[in-house]
Automatic annotation (TrEMBL):
It holds the Pfam family MdoG. This is Glucan biosynthesis protein D. Residues 1-28 form the signal peptide. It comes from the Bacteria. Keywords: Periplasm, Signal. Residues 40-531 form the Glucan biosynthesis periplasmic MdoG C-terminal domain. Belongs to the OpgD/OpgG family. Its main location: periplasm. The keyword Signal applies. Pathway: Glycan metabolism; osmoregulated periplasmic glucan (OPG) biosynthesis. The lineage of its organism: Bacteria, Pseudomonadati, Pseudomonadota, Betaproteobacteria, Burkholderiales. It comes from Herbaspirillum lusitanum.
Amino acid sequence: MLNRRRFLTSATAAAALAAFGITPEALAANRIKLSAASKFSYEDLIARARALAQSPYQPQPAPPREILDQIDYEAHGKIKFDTGYAPFADGPGQFPLTFFHLGRFFLSPVRMHVLEGATGSNGAKRAREIVYDESYFDMPADSPAHKLPAGSGFAGFRFQESRLGDQSKLDWHKNDWVAFLGASYFRAIGDLYQYGLSARGIAIDPAVAGKEEEFPNFTHFYFEPPAEGGDAVVVYAVLDGPSITGAYRFVMQRGAGVIMEIEKALFLRKDVSRLGIAPATSMYWFSETVKGTGADWRPEVHDSDGLAIWNGAGEHIWRPLDNPPRTTTSAFGDNNIRGFGLLQRDRNFDHYQDGVMYERRPSLWVEPLEGWGEGAVQLIEIPTDDEIHDNIVAMWVPKAAASAGSSYRLRYRLYWQKEEPFPSPLARCVATRLGRGGQPGQPRPPNVRKFMVEFKGAPLEKLPFGARPEPVLSASRGQFSYVFTEAVPNGVAGHWRAQFDLTVDGEDPVDIRLFLRNKDEPLSETWLFQYHPFKTQGLY
């Protein structure tokens, strides 16, 4: 049962709270605080972002840092939003809205607004700000959060599952399906009810030599009341940072996984060396690809295990992720790319053996809804020695220079799902394994590495009896030997592996490309890999 509070029952408050989906009968039991109404439209939000870009950057006012620093990880974990105050909880909409508190790791206040219905033929709405009050949160009596001044603000928000759903399977007080928290980060659960990797509104200069990465903030959010019986929510946002401003519209649909349709208008204050569109951020420590030296007891630890690309020419590419010896950036040039994403393909619990359920982490696919022209999917891989660090970034980077005064209007969809939404009809790569090259019983040369790449899918099942798929191999340098294919001896139809040795001298990375074919017909997606020879020291 909701624990509602008593509230004044003025006509103004009744109209405002109706926007939350709160009935008149419930009005007297709720006292969430709202500001006076102001006109709102998405086009006005775009104009506001454009105007912001014409003036120097001014950070949002923040509460005293000395108080926020006291709200450390432990103290923050004890502060819970009281779901009795959740907007949209009592109305026809499906998804109650709850908020995150500020703290040491979430310093920037974000202003939250609720939208009322259209006020004119142009579709304009009215916005009322939700005024922060500590009474919205359950917290210990000695919490340092009590020291914050009135109206300090929120750190982020999340939408809970419908409390009208099957209560035997979920509890809307606890189970959320999308969350926005920190800078421009957000994430959603997939079909398997698990969070994993994150998306961002924008990436500014990640892994650019001599420059610090910039993390613009979502500073304002505007929430439309969920439609009766609907499965989607609509949220608008303002982005602001030293080099960029922006206006966003998110239409987020909860079904089998989560699908987000995103519109955004961006305006550059300054030159940007690497402008990352639709960036995804994930974690990859290790997998079956490389056997380490006992750094951890688990067989694999990662939120994502590969980058998938569907390029403008129609080719499907799979690039396994790596934990490199130094920060690396790989670029996959294209024109009007069809889609890309960081995926978690390995769904076997036995491959992880961990209660945090890495096997259930969602994949994230980006689908451009309009032509993005020339550019590249760029993959950044950063060395890590623990699972607590997000060390993987994948994003689209336009070819044209991102110069001060430039603007962009973009539309795309994000799919948070178990599987990629547009799979290739060809066999897909299901495992990549590296080991010592050479032959058993003979000295193993240090500059030879053995690769075993597994593919599985319908085209391999349909091979004529006695036919063997041909591996098509190339590399930026080095020589191949002992190249052959064989059916994986597990009794599974259509499951084959390609084996080869690569001999290479020196420490520079080697880019390798492989696919399977029968005569002139491709049987598999294209496997790409970046091999770092000097990682052989102590890691294999």
